[in-house]
């Protein structure tokens, strides 16, 4: 009898492990389908994507702002609450990405050391005490480093929340939440429920366009025309020493931009 119980327990454990593994495979399949959609003609803070290949950090990062600015329709609020519950549970646990994207352009997954090297290569001007930079061919002609957030689902995995950012040096950066819904066909489509983007902003001086305060992130409406709203002084500052900069703001429609 004791031996039979042990055998039943062992078989149950094996079956449970198999079920968990199968579920993990399906979750990964959905997550990478969503990542692939996000990296098809991705939006950047400096205009259309012109990267010949994508540099992507190989570990997910939290989305910005921390509280997603998403307003689902009334009939999907219950499902989206389940998504937010998954987000609250797992948002501090990073996902290590795999080479499972299905996108048109070639891509490279950068580890933490390589991502830091890219960041240093884009932080200009260098000071005399900085060590000389070693050219890295994989960075050549690439403007942006992309970072992805983990993908959070409702219980039926028919609704998903994730985030993506692109950064090209200094104040040149864009952070966005994204929402996707699974159709009956199994395909994922993006839903226009996100009300904000986050971009880099500095405190500009009028008398000296070569100076600005420590950059801060702020939140603006998703439709905020930040590239068209720069003053002449700001436009001159964006060209200062060849540095490409943007603005960083985040807020919902009708809400004044606030700093985070």
Mean pLDDT across every amino acid position: 77
The secondary-structure element order is HEHEHEEEEEEEHE
- Number of structural domains: 2
- Radius of gyration, in Å, reads 22 Å
Number of strands: 10
Largest sheet: 10 strands, mixed
Structural class: alpha+beta
Brief characterization of the structure:
By secondary structure, the protein is of the alpha+beta class.
What would you note in describing this structure?
Strands 1, 2, 3, 4, 5, 6, 7, 8, 9 and 10 form a 10-stranded mixed β-sheet that branches. The protein has 260 residues and is an alpha+beta fold. It is globular, with a radius of gyration of 22 Å. The chain has 4 helices and 10 strands. It folds into 2 domains: 2-194, no CATH class; 195-260, no CATH class. It starts with a helix and ends with a strand. The longest helix has 37 residues, at 2-38. Mean pLDDT is 77; it is low at 13-20, 203-214 and 226-260.
Which key phrases capture this entry?
single chain; 260 residues; alpha+beta; 2 domains; ten-stranded mixed β-sheet; 4 helices; 10 strands; 27% helix; disordered C terminus
Q: How would the blueprint of this fold be written?
A:
Elements: H1 2-38, E1 54-57, H2 77-90, E2 107-110, H3 112-122, E3 145-148, E4 152-153, E5 159-169, E6 172-182, E7 188-191, E8 196-201, E9 216-221, H4 232-238, E10 258-259
Parallel strand pairs: 1-2, 1-3
Antiparallel strand pairs: 3-5, 4-5, 5-6, 6-7, 6-8, 8-9, 9-10
